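Entry 14. Ran structure prediction on the chain below.
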Amino acid sequence: MLNQKKSTQIIRNILRNRMPKTAPNQDSSYRHAAVLTPLLEEAGVYKVLFTKRADHLEHHRGQISFPGGSVDEEDRSIEETVLREVNEEIGLQRQDVDILGRIDDTVTMLSNFIVHPFVGRIPPSYNFSINKGEVDRLIKVPLNFFYPGNSTLKRKEIGFEGGSFYGPTYEYNGDLIWGATARIMENFMNIICSNRKR
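Output, structure tokens:
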């Protein structure tokens, strides 16, 4: 694996040299949300930061997710949404987020959101301030884990709130990453890996 500085620049270049695919919403049946895929370095290891959502939330309760949330009318842009939400959820200050680019939209299966994912580098050993009303805990997973051939990526059916959902899943230290979060992560790795080979 490359060091953090080289990895960051490679990811930035790849994302800025492609147009993210957008999800159609002609009939305005979907709401919009933005999430951050945060990357940080600890002890020489590049990691991805996830949150475990609180069990009492209306949408996606108890799931592993990226920090983020709904677009508000007051937000000047989708990037503004993601910076506001990460501050509200985990206390990450906007000046401490280096946005590397956007990846492709995804649609949630339960809550009818179009999710606009951003990738950003954040400082190591950050003093996070977790909003316990929304986030149960933080989870850090080495980025190398998600590389094809390294991960436990499987496609399987997950039962949740009376429904059944089929798609990619990752399991890391007993935590199951599935749904929109797994699709975003798989898309991100496909983008990075396919473009690094060129």
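The two ends are 17 Å apart (CA to CA). Will compare against last week's run tomorrow.
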